[in-house]
Each structure stands twice: as structure tokens, then as C-alpha cells.
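Reading group handout, session on sequence-to-structure problems. Before we discuss, look at one worked example. The prompt was deliberately terse, the way you'd type it at a terminal:

> structure 7,8-dihydroneopterin aldolase

The input record follows.
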Amino acid sequence: MTDELAITGVECFAHHGVLDFERRDGQIFAIDLVLGLDTAPAAASDDLHETVDYGSLVGAVKAAVERDPVDLIETLAQRIADVCLLDNRVEWVRVTVHKPNAPIDATYSDVALTITRANGGPTRD
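And the output record:
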């Protein structure tokens, strides 16, 4: 059985984007994570070492977002998924990258990409 751990709205400032001013000026990105893992061992032992330390994970994800600019949020989402899957207890991860200030010439609320990846490769919903 897989449980789900959700961490939403992790704000990061980074310089991703195709356009020159996005790379130069940077912007806010927000990250949502849902991790599939078995939390029963941690529940039984009440020991942090038996589960994913989400504080450390958020720090690693934030560092991954804020380094090395890329053109596409697709590339960024994959980078984040790779960080989350480094912990073998994570069976799968769903990553949403929000780019609320994307350069679109229209009124809109958000641009978001969601991907799901599993240890062993992409999953299909």
C-alpha cells in the first residue's frame, strides 16, 4: 500500500525561461510535491529515519530549482522529480511547477505543469 505525502506552494526565485529577460531578471516559481511512500514503518517506530525528512527534501528541491537556469519548465520538473526519487523509499512522485508570471500577453492566473515519475521511469495516469 502506498501513502501520499504532499508539500505544496514551495516558493523559489529562479532564472528559468526561453526569453532573455526571464534569464536576466528571474521570477517566482512555486512547487507542489506529492510523494508515494509507505509510512507504516515510521508510524510504528515514531522515528524520522524511517521516512522521508520533508524538511531536508524541500531544501534539496529549492536548491535544485534555484541553480542552473533551463529554458523549459518540463526540464525543471524532471530535475525536481529526480531529486525526490533519490530516496529509495519514494515509490513515485508527482511534481507540479507553477510559473505564475509567465510571459503571456493575456490575463491568466497561472501556468502549471504536472508530471508523475516513479523509481524505474515515467508512470501513466
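Points for discussion. First: The mean pLDDT is 95. Second: The first strand starts at residue 3 and ends at 14.
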